[in-house]
Amino acid sequence: MAETAARTACLGLGTAPFIADYSIDGAPGPVDPAGLLADCVEAGVRYVDTSAHYGEVETLLGAHRPLLERHRARLCVKVGVRDWPQGIDEALVRLDVERVDTVMIHSARGAALRDPRIADVMARVKAAGRSARTGASTYGIDDARYVLEQPWGDAVQTEHSILNPSVARAIGPGKRAGQEIVVRSVLCRGLLTARRHEAPRVGDDEVMTMLERLDALAAAWGFGDLAELAIRFALDSPSVDVVLVGIASLAELKVAMAASARPPLTGRQLDALREFDHSAEDWTHPERWTAVA
């Protein structure tokens, strides 16, 4: 039976590409970060994800607090395990706010994520009115599922793309009412864009041929390019609430907004894309690329 897209997630801005060398082709980041931020928010992006790991982005967002407040943009701030928990207050100072929508532990894994002290810290953060939601950004099914099982797990952020939809698909059925699943890497750090042609190869000839087939499928379905299809796929994924897209230029913003404006993918289209699920392979996980490139 064809899978249907019963709901659509909202589009969010992932600010990691605001730093240099984030994407597959080592791009330098936006020429005018402040202008691009304004363009994104004014175009309708209402969720902004950031971290102290992204250079001066938190300070940039703080300088544009009136813009974000005027458009009621939700802020998600991620704090690294090494900076936990004092980094929360430090991040809010840089953001020039007393409260954010979501506080997450950044790239939390294994034992660090299971530290029993986290529950107490998260409870105090919410009790103090510093955040409406708490959670963690994770990798893989087990850690993401663990977050959603915790009383403090209001939100989890995880990897998700046409090439690697396994985590959201596995954890979605266990999501409680009010919890959010936020997904990133929907463009696989540029692998699902034209940028891959200007970058060191990820994967073998078979991988490159498969990506060309995806290019052709996007064109046959009337998408502007594969990136637009990849974003639409994420927006239509069951149980996903926020789709973070790394945007480093006005052209990339236009692609994201075009994807958001398109009608949902049909059940037949979603079924056809299942063929491209290679979640078990390292080349679909950008965090592993140094080992496979």
Molecular structure report:
This protein has 293 residues and is α/β, with parallel strands linked by helices. It has one domain (10-292): Alpha-Beta Barrel (TIM Barrel). The protein is 39% helix and 16% strand. The chain has helices at residues 33-43, 57-63, 65-70, 86-95, 110-113, 117-127, 141-149, 166-171, 205-220, 226-235, 250-261, 267-273, 289-292; strands at 10-14, 47-51, 74-80, 100-106, 131-137, 155-159, 180-184, 242-246. An eight-stranded parallel beta barrel has the order 1-2-3-4-5-6-7-8, surrounded by five helices. Helix 2 crosses helix 4 (86-95) and helix 10 (226-235) packs across helix 11 (250-261). The longest helix is centred in the C-terminal third of the chain and has 16 residues, at 205-220. It is globular and about 50 Å long.
What would the keywords be for this entry?
8 strands, 13 helices, TIM Barrel, 8-stranded parallel barrel
Outline the secondary-structure elements.
Layout: E1 10-14, H1 33-43, E2 47-51, H2 57-63, H3 65-70, E3 74-80, H4 86-95, E4 100-106, H5 110-113, H6 117-127, E5 131-137, H7 141-149, E6 155-159, H8 166-171, E7 180-184, H9 205-220, H10 226-235, E8 242-246, H11 250-261, H12 267-273, H13 289-292
Parallel strand pairs: 1-2, 1-8, 2-3, 3-4, 4-5, 5-6, 6-7, 7-8
